[in-house]
Every structure is written in C-alpha cells, then in structure tokens.
Fold each of these.
Amino acid sequence: MKAARFHEVGGPEVLRIEDVPQPVPGAGQVRVRVAASAFNAADNGMRAGFLPIPVVLPHVPGYDVSGTVDALGPDATGLAVGDAVFGFLPMELDGGAAEFVVAPASVLTAAPTSIPLPDAAALPSVALTAWQALFDDGGLQAGQRVLVVGAGGVVGKYAVQLAKRAGVHVVATASPRSIDAVRAAGADEVVDHTATDLLAAVEDQVDVLLNLAPIEPDQFVALVGLVRDGGVVVSTTAWIAAPDDASRGVRSVTVFVLSNRDRLAEFATLVDQGALTVEVTRRIPLTALPELHAEASEGRVSGKVIVLPA
C-alpha cells in the first residue's frame, strides 16, 4: 500500500510517499480502509521534531481519520467489517496518511451519514479540542459568557457552534476575512481584532476566556482582566503559558486534547441533525502531502485540509 512516512525528523523533505506492507490488526484493533485523513498543525510539529510526541520512526502522520472497517483483530468489539467510521487516533501510533491504518476499536465510532465519508476526517481532534476546552476544562454552563480569541480558525468555529448550542453568550474575535463565518457559526458579538481594542470592546466580563491565537504574552496577561472573579482562562497554545489571577480566583488551564469515542458519537449525531457544521477547505491527494507540509512550515495553510489516499 501507499503511505506517507518520515524516517527522521526535519524539514518537509523528510516526508516521503512509500510502498509499505499492509498493516495487520492486533488485539483490540481494527484495520480501516482510509477514506481520508486530516492535516493538523501538530503533524507538522511532529515531523519537524519540535512537538514532543514519542513516535516510533518511521512514522505515518494523520491522526484524524475516516474510512471503512476492513478487518478485525482478536478481541476487537463494537465494530464490524464494512462499518463506516471516524476517529482520533493515538498520536504516538501510525496515522491515516495511507491507504490503510490499524487503530484501537475503542477510538472509532460510526461516521456521520449526512456528509461524504472523507469529510468526516475533518471533525475529530478539532471538535474534541473545542469541547474539552469549553466544558471539561472551562466548566462553561448555560447562561454564562465566553470570549473566544481566534474564533476564525477551525477550532474556533467549532467552539462558537458548541458554546452557542449550550446556551452560552459568545463573544468572539476574528479578522475581516472570517467575521462573517464566525457570525454564521453563532457568535453573539464579533470583534475585529485588527481594527478594535479588545479590552475596550468587551464591555461585560466573561466566565471563560478561550485563547486559540498566537498572541503576545503581555497581551494575554492583559486579557485576564476581562474574566470575572472565579472564572477560567483556557488556552490551546502550549508554547505560551496561560496566565491566571490567583488574587481573584481566576485559574488557568492549557488544553491537551484526549480521544473520546462517546463524544465523537454525539458530534456525529449533531452533524446529521444539522446542528454542527463540518468545514473542509481543501482536499488533496496523498502524493501532495509533502507539499502541504512545506506550505505549513511557511505558515501558508489555513482552514481544514483533508488528504485522500488516491
């Protein structure tokens, strides 16, 4: 089968398309004929060697995947050959940038039926990040207020949709090119961060501040003043320390997303009900993945890109 692999960490040139043996599912695993994998910034970081995920080389990237169950390993339960599935694969194992991938049955669930199966690969890790940041780490509840900084990105738009659906008042920042999309996702207030002072624009304090943007540390510290006493600062930007304010009981959390099959099943239901929108901005063949990594290394990848095996 064809697979994208890197044998050493380094620049985009270390990622190669190779012929490799078809994987065999072990105990508790299934083999999936890949419909698509999704590219994430972490794939670029793992290949470059600056994201400390302990992978075994050579490594196949692409931890978000959708496809069809092709074979069952011993003691694999809950799935059957022919099932259309999607999931967030363990990041330290080989991913879905290949024609086939083996994965624990416990991380896969039935894919949404209202969208093309390849598009389901765009959903898992980013939607899980948004949910865990808002509700598991932030403790957000109906009737509260959240400020989403960087809402124009992929995670941000899921965060806006999920928060609004939960009965939360959503204040979001966006650039001019994404303001309409953020508003369409359900934001109650949208602040153009390129033209407006956010500290002046947000009139009422929020219960949760969710930062998804690479802002300057001193700017991040200043934003904590927008959080009410006892509130929470949540960040996905692990390279920037999330600030808090112990004097006011404001705590901080950095999100490290975890796989959650049951939550993914809920997302699939929401997609099929029309209550959650899956966004795919580009679809590329597996052979173009090294070029995509080169674009990402130069900061030229935006939106959600999925990788088709053929």
Amino acid sequence: MDTNNKRNMWQFPWLYKESIAFLLGILLVSTLLQLTLGSFDFYLLHFPVNLIIGACLIVLIAVLSFVKDNPIVNWLSSVPLSVTLIGGLFILTIFMGLIPQFARVNTDLHIHMDHASFYEIVDYAITKLGLKQVTTSWPFVFVYIFNLLVLGLVIAKRLHRFKWRDYGFYLNHFGLWLFLFAAGFGSADMLRYVMYVEEGNVEWRVYDNHENVLELDIAIQLHDFVMEEYEPKLAVVNKFSGDVQPENKPAYYQIDEKNRKEILAGWELELQEYIHEAVRQTDTSFQAIPMAGSMPAARVKVTNIETKQTVSGWLTCGSVDQFVMPLDLDSTYSLVMTKPEAKRFASDVTVMTKDGKDPIRTTLEVNSPLRMGDWMIYQYDYDHALGKASRMSGFELVYDPWLYAVYVGIFMIAMGSICMLWLGNRNRKKE
C-alpha cells in the first residue's frame, strides 16, 4: 500500500475532519466564555445594532464571495463545513429539547462539593454551562453566527453562477437565512410584559424586570371577566391529618350526574342532588342562584361498606362569600369537595393604541390571542383566590416587530422545498 499519498490533517482542501475539529474548537472557546462571563445578553443587539451587524455581515459575505482560489474561503462555503455546523446547531437544539429552558436563571451559583448530592452537582454544571438557556449561551451564539456566515457565502457563490432553474434553491436558502437572522437578531427587539386590569378600568402601564413602571403605546379596557368551571371532585379525608384516603393511593369522585354512584375509601357514595351555582337557603340547604359569590353544592348519601352506617346531607367547597361545609362521616373521616378547576376563562376587552388605529373590542381567551400591530395579546391570568368572582384579568403582551420576517422566511423555505422536490421528480421522469 502506498502511504506517500496519505492525506495529512490540515492539508488543503479541508474536509470533514478539519471541519469537526474547527467546530470543537469554537465550542471549547465559547464554553470558556460561558463559564467566565455567563450567558450572552441578546438585548445588547437591539435596534439599530442588529441591522448594523446584519449589514456588515452581508457586506463581508459579498466581499468573500469574490475571493477566488483561496482555500480558506472555499472551505467556508464547502459542504463539509456546512454539514458540520448544521450538525452542531442540531445537537444544541437537542439539548434545548431535553433540558427544561428558563427565561431567567441565576448563574451566580455556589455549591459546596463536600455536601452536595450528585443531582445538585449535575444541576449546577448544567446551569453554569448555559444549558438551561441554550439560545443565550455562548456556544449557541458562536455556532449560530458561523451558520449565518457559511449559509450566506453558499448563497452568494451560487448567485455568481445564477440560473433561473435554480429558483427552488434560492427560495429555500434565502428563506433559511432570513429565518435564522430574524429569529436570532430579531429576538433582541422582542418585549414581553404582563398587564393586570380591573373590570371597568383602562390600563396602559406595566412593570419591567426591575419593577420599574413603564407606559406602553397600547392600552386595554376590561369590560367583563367570565369563567366556566368543571364540576368539582369529592374525596374522603382524615379530619386530623387532612390526608385524602386511602393515603397510599388517594381516590376522588368527579361529580357526574350521569354516574351518581362511586366507591371511595371503603364508603359507597350516592349523589342525590347537585347545584353548580348555589347559595345557602338555610344552614343545611341550598338553592340555585347564579351570582358572583355562588358555589357548587351537592347532597349525597354515604354508606360505610363494612358497618353499613349511612350518613346523608349537603356539602360544599365554599366561595369567596360563603364558608366551606364538609360532611362528617364518623369521628375520624369527612367527605369534602375540592375547588372546581377552570374549564374556560375569557375577558371582554377593548384594545387601543396611540398610533390612531380604531379601537378593537374582542373576547380574549387562552388559545385565542389578538394581534394589534406588532403586539400579540394573550389571556394570561386572573385572581385565583376569587376564581369566577375575579374582577381582575391578567394579559401577556408580546412585542415582536420581526415576526413577519420570520413568517416570510418559513414561507420561502416551504415553497423552495416544494419547488426542489418538484424539479427533482421532473428530472427523474426525463431520465
């Protein structure tokens, strides 16, 4: 075997070995930056800094695309480096999917190795390496920037050999570059606030991360807050410990007027009457009156399976205006009703802006946000202590002026992929 023709490492042209070594190098350097400086602050790139950097990046790509016969430039636009960088970005994305991500993480952590558990040591390492905030970690930033550079150079060099039949390639790659740039650099201009509004009031003020009051160019008037609830659950509890029975496997009965009988912790329960919005008529009876302070109430018959002892009566989970009323079963156990869970909550609002647009009156629900200019408004919260009697509603307001650019990029990627598949299929038929 002739060993004289064996290719040495770092001998041009650089291929996959050199590209992987380069990726490992930038990951090492960026990890050291992460450990010493903490996470990268993308908000330093807010407008117009992101546009200036974008313009400089495009100029650099254009200049490099005219450099001929330079092995480094040729490698920057090569398939091995492109595949390697995409692979690096894919691995970081996997970390982002496997490890819970947080908007804010305290990176100034200290841990005593002598007393720390294995889980605490691992959690500490994950936090310091930025894996709980992958998109703001230095490794992600480095790989992301190099992907933009390499992808842009691939597009620019292809443009030097422009052919109309390559429109699928141009759509796909231009769309991917636009998507990556808008989603990354555009995140610096994204703002996210939570606004709380009382019924009948108009609010335009929010608090930032430092508890400073900010006045926005958008205001919300809350006309009404409404909530629909699921039927509550019934459970047998120990009066002294408060534990739901049986303790090793707590059992609940979801009130269902079609299924009125259930076995709970050795007791046979029979639902005789249920009122979802009830108020006290006497100390031991209820009547249906829909109102803000009403509450679920149930009349039941409960029989101990072993002793055949029977107890009947009303019970309720109470409300902001009325007391809880359990049903005593014996000297140790009581039957109680849980608080009903929210099925749907919504806000009747009018949204106004300073730019002179007509106010919009709409109903905001959890899965039905409103877009107003560059703002997205989501139903977010309410006063959980008051439940359906809440006169306050919380809204999440997200300002993202780059969202349309992201959508355009996604559309171009989709159209380019369809065109490339169609052209490839047509060429195969010709063959």
Amino acid sequence: MTDIGVVLVVQAAVSVPWVLPRDPRLEPASLPAYLLTSLTVLPLLWRRRAPVRVLFAVMAAQSLYGLAVDGPGQTLPYTGLVALYSVAAHAPAPARRVCGALTLAIVFPSVALNTGEARELVFSLMVFTAAYGFGRFTDVRQAYTRAVEDRARQLEVTRRIEAEHAAARERARIAREMHDILSHAVSLMIVQAEAGPVAVRTAPDRAEAAFDAISETGRDAMVQLRRMLGVLREWGPGAPRSPLPSLAELPALVERVRSSGLAVTHTVTGPERPLPRDTDSAVYRIVQEALTNTVKHAAATGAAVLLAYGEDGLTVSVTDDGRGTGTGTGTSTGTGTGHGLIGIRERAAAHGGSARTGPGPDGRGFRVDITLPLVPVTSSSEVGS
C-alpha cells in the first residue's frame, strides 16, 4: 500500500504540466507525452522488491521520453529521485554504490543536452545526492529499529525463561516445605498412635500424654500449612514473610519430638548471633528433617541436636544412636537418594554451605552435619524472628 501511495503522489506531481495552463510558445502537453511520462512512474510499484531494476527502468523510460516526444519537462526529476532513494535504502551495498555513481555520472550529459548551465548542474547534483543520502538514512534507521526490536524480543525471551526458572525454584521450595511439615507431623503422630494402645493397657497417664501429643502435632502442622497457603495466596512484592519458621521455635520442636519417646538433647555453643531470615528458617527445617528421619527410620532411643557458632560459620549436627544406614557416608555431592537427605543438602547448598551425612561416632547411629557461612545481618528486617 505504501508503494501504491508513492506512485500516486509521483503521478500527481508529474501530471502538473498537463493540468495547469501553458504558454502557447512552450512544447505542447500532448496525450502521447503524458502516457510516456506515466510510463516512467509505473516501475516505482516494484521499488522495494527490485530497486536496481526499477532505477534502470526509470532511466530507460526517461531516455525514451526525451528521444520520442517533444513534450513538457518537469520542475524536478521526481521518478529518478524516488528510484535512487529506493536503491540507497533497499539495495545491497555494492549495487547501491555502483548505481549512485552511475546516476551522478549521467547527470552531466543530461544537463549538457538540456540547458548546459552550471546552475542546473549544481542543482541536479545536489538533489540526487540528497535523495541518495535520505535513502541511506532510512536504511540505517530501519536497521537500528530492527536491532532494537530484536533486542527487546531477546530480553522478553530471557525474562520469560528467568520467570520459568524462578517458578520452578519456588515450586521446589514449596515442595520441600510441604514435605518437611507433613513428614515431621505424620511421623510423630504415627509413633504416638502406635504406642497409644499399649500405653492404654499399661500406663493410662502415658496414653493420655500420647494422644495430647498427637493432637498438638496435628494442630501445629495445620497452622504451618495455613501459613504457607496464606503466603501463596498473598504472593507479591509486599507479601508477608513472617510464616517462615525460625530457630526461636526449635525448643518447641525438640519438645514435640521428645514427647514421642525419643530422648532429645538441644545444645548451643559459641556466641549466638542473628541469622538472615532465610538461613534461620533453613536451619530449623534441616533439624526438623533430621529428627523426622530419626523417628521414622532409626529405631533410636536418643538424639542430640548441636548448634555450634564459630567466628565465620555455623555448624549444625544431629546425631542419633539408632541402627544407622550401613551404607557409608555422603556429602553435599554424594549419592544419598532419600528425599529428606536430598532436601537437607539442597537447603545447605542454597545458603552457601555443605552437608555431610553418615554413621555416628564409633560407627553407631546416624549423623547429619551441616556447615553454613555466617553472613553479617545489616538490617533488622532481615533477621529471623
């Protein structure tokens, strides 16, 4: 449609000598002359697809007009200017340079055959040079626009990929949180429920405590699940992060596990210091998962939780006296395939730390050791609650 519009505009411009009254002493504005003039305009329809051919077709038509008829001239060589502009804007570099030089070379004999005046020569060189320059400017501007658009598309693709990766990481984080909450709660409830019938017959007081522990564990799991789902519903820039568990809740966790019959000790060494909120929550989840594994799989009678604060790191150890694994040790790059151990290693690695799991002291029981770097907390808003 743009090319058709250009053709119509140029046709209107070259038709002016046939529309306005003319001096009888000038060349007559005959119909054959008008048809030949229109023939010079028609090739412009293909100026984008074949700019070089269009330029030569326009030159040939103009030469035919000058040789075949003695008609009125034009104020400006409209068709030649548009054709040269199209070559400069759309033709490959070698072709446009040759066509530009050839067009300027043709100007000299054309002016000599017309008026031969220096004034006309300078004017013709200026307008054809300007047409070529405008064509090059258009080509550069379009290339820049294409580059910007390509860059925008690449950024959009990159943004979409990053969003997908972020969503995948968030799904994995939620899966770990759900696994920790449900696995811990259900494991404790199963242990208490299995011990309940025996305690009913032998020690009613212990049975009542077991059922109370089941109820408390279930309520705590429901509270944590509601908090997590609330965070998901309110996810956004201003979403609250207070539902994340923290080390402040670790004594309550140890007490719940202790109520299941496992003798758990909780020891802290070194000067305690505030941790970033995410690290604080990760340490809680690591201890929770380690104790859950002990309750579910170790058949242990006791476990020890140790938090050792060093100058630049925090070491978390959870050791039990159960049957262990009998499979050797594993590290953060080891081959342990349990979902709980995988989650522990992933949490440690996500905070720049390392994880080692394997037999406890003297090859007895099972031990989980986590080492995390301590990053200084610069804002109270980053401290775990």
